[in-house]
Hints:
Order of helices and strands: HHHEEEEEEE
Structural class: alpha+beta
Distance between the termini: 70 Å
Helix content: 10-25%
Oligomer: single chain
Shape: elongated
Amino acid sequence: MxxxxxxxxxxxxFCILCLSIWGSTVVFAxxxxxxxxxxxxxxxxxxxxxxxxxxxxxxxxxxxxxxYSDLVSNTKTTNLNTTPKSDKILTVLKVYPNxxxxxxxxxxxxxxESNLSVKIMDLLGNEVxxxxxxxxxxxxxxxxxxxxxxxxxxxxxxxxxAGSETVVKRISVL
Length: 174
């Protein structure tokens, strides 16, 4: 063994012995650790409650837009004989089969004639392919679309737009 290594080993051993001897004694009249246990912390048994009266948000329509007539008029008039008119154009009843292999079928109801756009979007919202962009008559209809081969296996969204309404359905492509 070299002298440098022997000296380093001796100093290391000496330090361990000194720490074991002097580490167990009380230095500079410190309080023993048992006095810390005698101090009791104040316990909180009750969680503070915040009481506020905040009304819940209820949108005026399903599309998220408030009609202009509601913004302009200050008074609301109700007529019990009239039923509220639904401005809904598109109702998607079913998207099948799911998972999709090479063809997807779309069962929908159109309340009036409108432009229909059917697109496949990826998980980030990027448009992958447009399946259809056409004018559709009113009524219940079934449309079939062929899925392109370039589409990788995974989860996509089918974005169906009729007029100003958008319906998004999740599909799995095999």
